[in-house]
Structures are given as structure tokens and as C-alpha cells.
């Protein structure tokens, strides 16, 4: 009996090593003042796959994803311990510039947040900040990014109109284009479809499937069906801990922890 369990465990751990990690998270703890919001988080996030973060409200999903680009440090009462290694470098070492990290690790938020500028300027903004001035080069970046975000055909004849004139779903894809324009390695998405209608949601989900060919994606979602549809691996968070992290099909069809089973079958949350 013991031998069987050990064999299964070895097989599982071998399977779980079967990818190139883009992030390695080691014993990450985070406190908001006295509130211990992330507890001993330890797992690796694969490159060029979609990793979903699921769990009930308040379990630490948004907090966790915002540690990956150090955005969480904007909250003054935050304290952290542990390590997040991005491409072999600990992102908390003082010499690691946060601007450099955020160029590599882009983020798309829950509510589409375009700038009050034209569609073109929204996408050109990041490359301009990074020193690209040549109009022809900017035109190319804008077109490539809008195509990458599957919105080019809808906006190519109105590039100089205000982005606020787009629908919510179009605005979210514009924000994804804005993120692509600075050529990130990883894209963090914090509930990117929760403010969208079902058709726009489907478009963003299809887009995520396309984007994972070139980018590593981490997506927080309230929606378990969405995690099951679009992710390769899923981490189930509860009360600031990772209860289970494995490939998505296993997590939803054969969870190893009773709490995961209770959550995915709707017994709580
Ligand atoms: N800026 C903050 N200041 C203090 N506490 C915070 C802050 N942000 C989050 N928290 C606390 O940290 C815990 C985790 O919150 P977080 O927003 O990460 O959870 P979540 O799983 O993303 O929730 P939801 O699904 O409702 O968005 C909660 O107890 C929350 O109250």
C-alpha cells in the first residue's frame, strides 16, 4: 500500500516538473498589517501555458497575482517574506528594477481602463515611453499589437477616434493590445472578463488561447467554467493558501483534496 502511494507521488511530482517555469514561487507570505493574506505559497508557473487562479472571494487571488509584478507593494501596509524567481532572478532583490519587471510582466485588469486618448495613442503610449519615436515603427507596433489582440479589423478605420467610444469588450481587447505593445513575456489577467457580456467574454477567451502560443498567461477568475475552458493548470486558493495545484483537467475531474472537491462541486464559495 505504502509503496503504491509512493509510486503515485513520484509519478505526480515527475509530471509536475514537466514544464519550463517562468515563475518559481517559494514560501511566499504576505500580510496587510496583521492580516496574513498569503500563506507559504509554493508553486511553479509554466511558460507558454495558461495558469488559472481560482477560489472564493477574499482567498487572496488578486493579492497573489499582484505580487508577480510587485504591484501589491503600492499598498503601504504590505509586508512580504519568501521568494519569487522570475526567469532565474529573485524579483525582490534590490537591484531588480520594478520598471524592468513590469515591462516583462504586463497586466490586464478587471475593468477595461483605456487612457482618454485615441485608440492609436493608447497602444503607442508604452512604446513611446520606451523611446520609440519613429512614426513608421510606431505604426507597425500599433498594427501588430491590435492584430495580436484580435481587434484590428474592428478599429483599423477609426484609429484616431477616442478609445472611450469602443464597447466594453473592445476596450478590454484594446487594453490587451496596449499590453502586447511593450512586448511582455508574461501577461497577468485579473478577472479580465468579469465586466463583459458573454460574447465579449468568448472573444477574450479565444484570444487567450491564441496568446499562449507566444506568452505565459496567469489569469484570476471567479468563473470555474472559464478556468476549465481556457487554462492548462489551475491553482485552487483558500484562506490565503494553495490547497491544490495541478493540471486543469485533473483538478476538475479528480481533485485530490476534499476542499477542492467541495468548491468545484459548489458546496461553498
Ligand atoms: N489593500 C488592502 N488592504 C488591506 N487588506 C486587503 C487589501 N487588499 C486585500 N486585502 C485583504 O486580503 C485578503 C485577500 O484579498 P484579495 O482581494 O486578494 O482576495 P480575492 O480572492 O482576490 O477576492 P475577490 O475574489 O473578492 O476579488 C482579504 O482578506 C482582503 O480583505
UniProtKB/TrEMBL annotation:
Gene Ontology CC terms, in alphabetical order: plasma membrane
Organism placement in taxonomy: Bacteria, Bacillati, Bacillota, Bacilli, Bacillales
Localisation per UniProt entry: Cell inner membrane
Primary localization class, coarse: membrane
Record keywords: ATP-binding, Cell membrane, Membrane, Nucleotide-binding, Phosphate transport, Translocase, Transport
Protein name (database record): Phosphate ABC transporter ATP-binding protein
Gene3D superfamilies: P-loop containing nucleotide triphosphate hydrolases
PANTHER family: ABC TRANSPORTER I FAMILY MEMBER 17
